[in-house]
Amino acid sequence: MSAMSTQRSNTTNLTVGNPIKVILIFALPLLLSNVFQQIYNMTDVTIIGHKLGDDALAAIGTVSIIYNMFSSFVFGMNNGFSVVIGRFFGAKDSTNMRKAIGNSITIASMWIVFLTVFTISLRVPLLNLINTPQNCIETGLPYLTIMLAGLGLSFIYNIEAGILRALGNSFIPLCVLILSAGLNVLLDFLFVYKLEFGLKGTAIATVTSVFIASAVCLIYIIYKVPEIRIKKEDLKLNKKIAVELLTSGLSFGLMFTIVNLGTVVLQSAINSLGQTVIAAHTTARKITELMMMPNSTLSTAVATFVSQNHGAKRYDRVIKGIKQAHIFMFAVISVQIVFMYLFGGGLIEFISGSTNETLISTAFLYLKFDIVFYYSLVPLCQLRMSLQSLGAKIVPLVASFAEMILKVLTAGLLVQKYKYWGIIICEPAIWVICAIYITIAFILNPNIKKYIFTSRK
Hints:
- With 457 residues, the chain is mostly helical.
- Helix content is 84%, strand content 0%.
- It is built from 16 helices and no strands.
- The protein has helices at residues 19-52, 54-90, 94-129, 134-149, 151-166, 171-194, 199-224, 239-270, 275-311, 315-352, 357-370, 374-389, 394-412, 414-418, 420-443, 446-456.
């Protein structure tokens, strides 16, 4: 039976068919979704660099790190919810699946109010805490305020898309995101170029496009996915399911947030190196996010694959699918390395809109060094998210916490001695250390260990 023949309405069963085939079919719309997400993120940077100059580029680089930290928590929580929903879907337990969806909505509603108030209240103290230059705060604060005010919309969209992906539907979130990305680009030009709103114009464009994406996604779910039409009683918190959703959501959310907290600390060290370095690092990180996207996307797809197969108790497929996903990603990274060394300099110049040779060479140095270590990110990302899908919540958190501590130590020691080189070598060293730890933890996971023992016997 093929994977496509198991499709029920607008959902896809990932517990049958060739593992790498169903993973890649599911991952492709995810990848395209992330590409379009990065396109309009990079459009912001490109428009700002070309229209508003290096100072504005430095400003958005320093303030957006705060937004990214909180948005990563939102993204992580929704991934955690999706894992629970996907597990019920894989087990063909439609009653509890609908309860999990209803409880996800109830829990998310509570978190939206809390996060909006909390993040807006802390934005200025956090910017001061990471040594953000005062001119960057003055320039970037309106942008940050608008983005944080729209964080609830991001939560709504991500939970809608997460529910669809948990059921194996990654195509519709792609279509919605393409619509949103196209609108965002048009609004960027309107608010920044035509109306000259400055940095806050890019924030208004982003929040508006996310609002439309969440509205369209909701309409689709209501009218096109009968499997997840919930009733009023499904919204009432079920103790067992709510606890499972919260522990899974918080575990995922904290995993992403802890890593980003370390990045915030690193940013405080970068802020002490001057605005040229800040602008260079902002540009390099945007390119890095684009280059890391295939692995992060495949890791998300693998997590859904593992979640459904965990629900179906198909651990043989879990092992096979992860092995095949690793091999595929190693091949992709090899191509990326060649591309970066050949075209990286021109890409930096295009995105930043800068002719500053120091800025371009600094960003290129970061990219050339770090990309070689992307191989270590494959087990780190795929196995960490797979462990979450298998119900192991502590080990991934320990790995994330260790990553944060190492970044804090880097900011306090390496940067002081080696300046920007300290930033460059920090993350690759952390990736290798954490990848070794997470690989050992995955092999020793009871479900996986039992399978390996049985297969050898």
